[in-house]
Design goal:
The chain has 20 helices and 20 strands. It has 588 residues and is α/β, with parallel strands linked by helices.
Length: 588
């Protein structure tokens, strides 16, 4: 039995395909069309999923969509009417899209996929809950979901047992912890639904100067329930701005212009806002644990990507174990929809645990060689893996930034050792080097460490043997290791850890082990293989383009190593030969 899950028409469109209860493929549309946070129909992602399974849409038994459009439309109409005439612009902008597309999503899906199969709809936050619990290692767990907004729900909690998920409590629009964090993001001059991690990265540089003022913005109860003070927000009647003039008056400064200089005020706003979001999530999780008496918790929704809050939940709320799958945001709701249909609706037993994120396209040596040849790059093929890893570890040790392209692409926003930039975490200059020469992004943005799981507790304040495979937890770097790992130790002494095992990412594990044997430190920098404003690379050609146009020192794609960049003339000629061939071979 095949079940296809789809999420789209808000942000981060994606698709996931389940076969007989096992995940076959999952991917975001942006990785294929190279348009970051692409929201429209994920045609290429679906085509990829079907190709990976070796089937056509005719072989799919069930197709599910991650929201209930009529319920969401009802919320939008009610909100517009309640704030009329302030919402006139919203009405003019939104109604044509809803009437022509979003209310007809079933017909749109059928037309795009050339099928007459029925389309099934899953409630948005139930899709989030399923995306975490049904692929978790737990038979029973509390489930917490939090994001901007689904249909009406913005935050919810409940319990999963076996294949059943029951949502016990919810908070509804316009009160939303996700929209609160988005308002902070916008106020700091960053792009909403794209740069919330910038707020998290900036926060450690600041002080809790404005926590009291944020408590005027949001009323937080002891059980983690909350209400936004709506005089500070405009998301009920404006699509142009998320906060009001009263917000700017409260904090004493107008919105930061994009790309303008950041100062201590912005650092303190980021720190204070992050602390208030953590307060909400920790109080809520503590209440949920006391109410449900569960030892395990699963978290999903965009707020589930707030790795600092996740770590505090694990440390402070009373839960013993935590699980957040790597695509916790909307793209992962496609995954949740597929498993909810298979397990909860169709009553099939659970058999899949999401141990890794590598569910996108992979490429064999012949495909890599073809891309390299077309691009005019000089390369070496190293047949023995031991030699390949020794060469890569040597380059990292000597200060090179390596584009590491191996196996299948990651699902979710984090590069986890398949499409990663890898460098030396011991080098105190490496953070600035990568930010300036490769990522072309703000200097404050931190990088994450990848560490062999069995050694993680030696470098970070976490229990021996603890799993953190998805880079969604932020323990403290041990004090004696700050000087050892300066490039991945955040301003506040923490690190966004990825633990790596041989079972789940063998070649990446063996690279870090080789580097550890060479240097005595089995830890490397891992950041996404992309430049600012672009999705993570998907194909060998994407990797080549990024290598040629940035300060990356070398790329290791499969068993091929490239250290020399081509001339502009040779590369342009190769690109012309590659574009059509690459795009057609990927999905056909």
């Amino acid at each position: 039995m095949y079940v296809l899950g789809i999420s789209c028409f808000y942000h981060d469109a994606g698709a996931a395909l389940v076969q007989d209860g096992e995940l076959v493929a999952a991917a975001e549309e942006e990785r294929f069309n190279r348009k970051k946070h692409y929201s429209d129909f994920p045609k290429l992602a679906i085509e990829y999923c079907l190709k990976e399974a070796g089937i056509t849409i005719a072989d799919v038994d069930y197709i599910g969509f991650y929201e209930k459009p009529l319920v969401k439309f009802n919320r939008i109409v009610e909100t517009i009417l309640a704030r009329w005439p302030l919402t006139y612009t919203n009405w003019v902008k939104s109604m044509p899209v809803w009437l022509m597309t979003k209310l007809r999503i079933g017909s749109v899906i059928q037309k795009e996929l050339d099928t007459d199969k029925d389309i099934y709809y899953c409630q948005h936050h139930l899709a989030h809950a399923a995306s975490a619990f049904l692929v978790s290692p737990f038979d029973e767990a509390a489930v917490i979901t939090a994001d901007g907004v689904g249909e009406w729900t913005t935050t919810g909690w409940g319990v999963g047992k076996g294949t059943e998920i029951v949502i016990e409590k919810e908070i509804r629009f316009p009160h939303s912890v996700g929209l609160l964090f988005s308002a902070i993001t916008a106020y700091l001059g960053f792009r909403v639904n794209d740069a919330e991690w910038k707020v998290m990265g900036l926060a450690p540089y600041g002080k809790p100067t404005y926590v009291d003022k944020f408590h005027e913005v949001v009323d937080i109860r002891d059980d983690g329930s909350f209400r936004l003070n709506m005089k500070y927000f405009t998301h009920t009647h404006s699509t142009e701005k998320m906060f009001s003039r009263k917000w700017e008056e409260l904090f004493g400064r107008p919105q930061r212009p994009k790309e303008s200089e950041l100062d201590s005020f912005h650092e303190d706003i980021a720190h204070s806002g992050q602390k208030v979001v953590e307060e909400i999530m920790v109080k809520m999780a503590t209440h949920v644990q006391r109410t449900t008496r569960q030892e395990n918790v699963c978290i999903a929704g965009g707020v589930g990507l707030n790795c600092v809050a996740n770590w505090r939940i694990l440390q402070e709320s009373g839960f013993k174990n935590i699980f957040i799958q790597p695509a916790a945001g909307d793209s992962g709701a496609a995954l949740g929809t597929a498993f909810y249909l298979y397990n909860s609706v169709l009553k099939n037993p659970r058999k899949f645990v999401m141990r890794h994120a590598y569910w996108g396209p992979g490429f064999d040596d012949a495909q890599v060689k073809s891309a390299l040849d077309r691009s005019g790059l000089a390369y070496r093929y190293i047949d023995r893996e031991e030699d390949l890893l020794e060469e890569t570890a040597r380059m990292i040790d000597e200060g090179s930034v390596i584009g590491w392209f191996q196996g299948r692409l990651e699902f979710g926003p984090r590069a986890l050792g398949a499409r990663s930039l890898v460098a030396d975490a011991r080098n105190p200059k490496m953070k600035d080097i990568i930010n300036a020469k490769v990522k072309f992004r703000e200097a404050f943005r931190p990088f994450a460490p990848s560490v062999l799981k069995e050694h993680a507790h030696e470098y970070f304040e976490m229990p021996a043997g603890m799993d953190a495979p998805f880079m969604l937890l932020v323990p403290r770097v041990r004090a004696e290791m700050h000087a050892v790992l300066p490039a991945v130790t955040h301003q506040d002494g923490t690190g966004r850890v990825q633990t790596v095992t041989e079972a789940d990412n063998g070649r990446y594990y063996r690279l870090i082990r080789t580097f550890g044997k060479r240097t005595g430190v089995p830890v490397v920098i891992n950041t996404s293989f992309n430049v600012r404003g672009e999705p993570i690379v998907c194909t060998p050609q994407d990797a080549i383009n990024t290598f040629v146009n940035t300060g990356i020192d070398a790329i290791v794609i499969g068993n091929y190593v490239v250290t020399e960049k081509p001339s502009a003339v040779d590369f342009e000629a190769g690109m012309r030969r590659s574009i059509e061939l690459e795009s057609s071979s990927l999905v056909k």
